[in-house]
Amino acid sequence: MKFSEVDEASWEELRPYLDTCLIPVTGLTGNEQPYEVTAALERLRDIMDWIETPFKGRVVTYPSFQYGRDDIMPQINEVCHHVKLSGFTFVIVVSADVKLAADKIPNADLIVAPSEFEGMQGTEASSRVSRQILQMWEMG
């Protein structure tokens, strides 16, 4: 579910079920050509589908961090902290192109990034992400 699909009137009713926040990271630099931006957004969308589709009804997707790479990790970590303070129990940070360092984003409960999927096919990678999410929820 996208953040824009949750209105004020229904939030309190949905809140107990929507306990996980998904924070996408595009990682653009500004040096990309328009077709490269499109490709980056499509890659991110494809990985987000691994989470949004099977876990609809429990995950709320927040707006993307569009620009930046290593320099935005402290800001991502701060946003993770704040969304937890706002009531989310779990935060997943996802990127198709940026290697996200867990030690720089300790407030994230799960990081889904390209380094985890080297040599894997799409189905194998999406199954792995699903298992990681279920494990996160069981342990949480």
- Round the Cα radius of gyration to an integer and report it: 15 Å
One letter per element, helices H and strands E, the order comes to HEHEEHEEH
Distance between the termini: 21 Å
What's the rounded overall pLDDT mean? 92
Question: Are there runs of 5+ residues with pLDDT below 50, and where?
Answer: none
Count of helix runs: 4
Largest sheet: 5 strands, parallel
Strand content: 15-25%
Count the strands?
5
Shape: globular
Output the structural class.
alpha/beta
DSSP helix fraction: 40-55%
Oligomer: single chain
Attribute tags:
single chain; 140 residues; alpha/beta; 4 helices; 41% helix; 17% strand; globular
Explain this structure.
Strands 1, 2, 3, 4 and 5 form a 5-stranded parallel β-sheet that branches. The longest helix is centred in the N-terminal third of the chain and has 19 residues, at 34-52. This protein has 4 helices and 5 strands. The mean pLDDT is 92. It has helices at 8-14, 34-52, 73-85, 122-139; strands spanning 20-28, 59-61, 65-67, 90-95, 110-112. The protein has 140 residues and is of the alpha/beta class. 41% of the residues lie in helices and 17% in strands.
